[in-house]
What we know:
Distance between the termini: 11 Å
Number of strands: 9
Shape: elongated
Number of helices: 11
Number of domains: 2
Amino acid sequence: xxxxxxxxxxxxxxxxxxxxxxxxxxxxxxxxxxxxxxxxxxxxxxxxxxxxxxxxxxxxxxxxxxxxxxxxxxxxxxxxxxxxxxxxxxxxxxxxxxxxxxxxxxxxxxxxxxxxxxxxxxxxxxxxxxxxxxxxxxxxxxxxxxxxxxxxxxxxxxxxxxxxxxxxxxxxxxxxxxxxxxxxxxxxxxxxxxxxxxxxxxxxxxxxxxxxxxxxxxxxxxxxxxxxxxxxxxxxxxxxxxxxxxxxxxxxxxxxxxxxxxxxxxxxxxxxxxxxxxxxxxxxxxxxxxxxx
Length: 293
């Protein structure tokens, strides 16, 4: 098989399975319907709900475990909890938690910090962020830490920025490298959040010389992204998310494992060039594990 064929097959493996997508959709609709019943007096399974995070940006890969959902509440609910003398934000999260527990009474549901988390027995975790929509389409959300406060985020701008660059400037390569990087991260436990992977990939792809190419260049895509990661100043502690400008903080040293991945990718490409496809495949599997064909 050619390089392009191998990376096409790899893509088939790293995309989220259709049955998992179906399970996620089923739970999303049940949660949304219950929240709409309690806060909007409707039976809609989709209104007021929005996938955000990596699933919303369409950069999640097979093995995804965290699903982020923003649910918009009526402004009257904000007024109610904003009037609390102490930590109305915590009370708001508990109200949302109690609503979801009506649908999933035997599943762990907890309110923590900014989200209501639902842990399912197949290791998939939903994190529901209750929000209030602002005039500019950004969101205000509750933070119950340190006595409670209101904060803002703008995931729509992030998703729009990713979709635009991926489609019009990167020929699909932006989302491809985001997903492949997640497979590598999960294999080695690299301290990189999904948002930081996506932010760094967004910056990298803008200047990558082969961004308009397709699968035939995906070996170079992996190699060059590892090199990019490995050369980032280790003293840098945060970046700004595309679109929203939100702060994205690092969790630890990702540069060293990226440098190791770069050397392995170089070896894999060298074996490909010298017509040693089996050895090349083994090198790619060092990086990605059995997800790589």
